[in-house]
Amino acid sequence: MREPLSVRVRWLILSLVIGLAPIPACSKGTANSGEEVGSKVPPASQQQAPEPPPVQVAVEKATVPGGIRYSYYVVNGSAYPITHMLIGFERLYDIPELTQGPVGWDGEGTSVPATSYSAPPGWLFDVYTMEEEEHINLAWEIDPNQAVLTPIRGGESLGGFSVTVAQADAAYETGHWVTYLDSSEEIAYWGILVPSATVSVPPSSVLAQSGVRLRDNPGRGTLWIEFDVPVRGIAAVDVFDVNGKKVTELFRGPVEMGVKTLTWDGRNSRGAKVPSGTYFLRVKYPAAQRFAKFVWVHS
């Protein structure tokens, strides 16, 4: 049986990462690569509960000859490329939750008949088991041997993930998923599967364009950034390239609830001008985050 060491290692690493937390008092923050223009606070204030992750995984169930096929569709609303996906894995407790393997899988090795699963081009499929566990989980990951890697980049969606089992299994349809990211900023996102007909874009997703406003887009010379602050605390504003690598940190510091504005001059953390291309803005604060996708063009 295969022991998913990479999953356990990632869990240990993530458990050491401390998220941004509210602070008892607020004062003016510092703008690093960006310039703080101002803030305005509305008369009413509201606290905000944690939001769904910017990634969603939808499932579709179909009856096929020899069993039931579950097909999965990934919507990546973050700024980070997705390189691994697990189905049937409870991230909070670090345990698999599927009791039934693909049709033709012997339950011992890792070989699964090609007729019992599908994977997008450039992706590999596997079944993970744990010692002293009767449950399993499914895994799709980027083939590291290909010349050009094909992750699910920020703002993109990808289907073609499927598995066929002998009988209907609710865990394949309403269980948990985990996606691992090619980024040092975030290691993973996880959540619960949703039916394909009910996929909605989380407010935090780059696809939602909620709570972040950019002017102009495409940007030339100066990019004006305005974002809503739903809860008082520490905020961080960063720019990432299309590969999910941080370009620069625009702001990190305490903020009041309300609306905040910044600008970006198209330079990285070393002060050099960035190439023209697609970039992502991430605004992160307690209990929420926002992504926005934009194009930068040299003036």
Report on this structure.
The protein has 299 residues and is mainly beta. It has two domains: 125 residues, Sandwich (Immunoglobulin-like); 144 residues, Immunoglobulin-like. Strands 1-18-17-20-21 form a five-stranded antiparallel sheet, with no helix packed on it. It has a five-stranded mixed sheet with strand order 8-11-4-3-14. The N and C termini lie far apart (57 Å).
Topology:
Blueprint lengths: L4 H12 L13 E2 L3 E6 L14 E10 L2 E10 L5 E6 L1 E2 L4 E2 L20 E2 L4 E7 L6 E7 L14 E9 L4 H5 L1 E6 L6 E5 L1 E2 L16 E9 L1 E8 L3 E9 L4 E10 L2 E7 L12 E9 L2 E9 L3
Parallel strand pairs: 3-14
Antiparallel strand pairs: 1-18, 2-19, 3-4, 4-11, 5-10, 5-12, 6-7, 8-11, 9-10, 12-13, 15-16, 16-19, 17-18, 17-20, 20-21
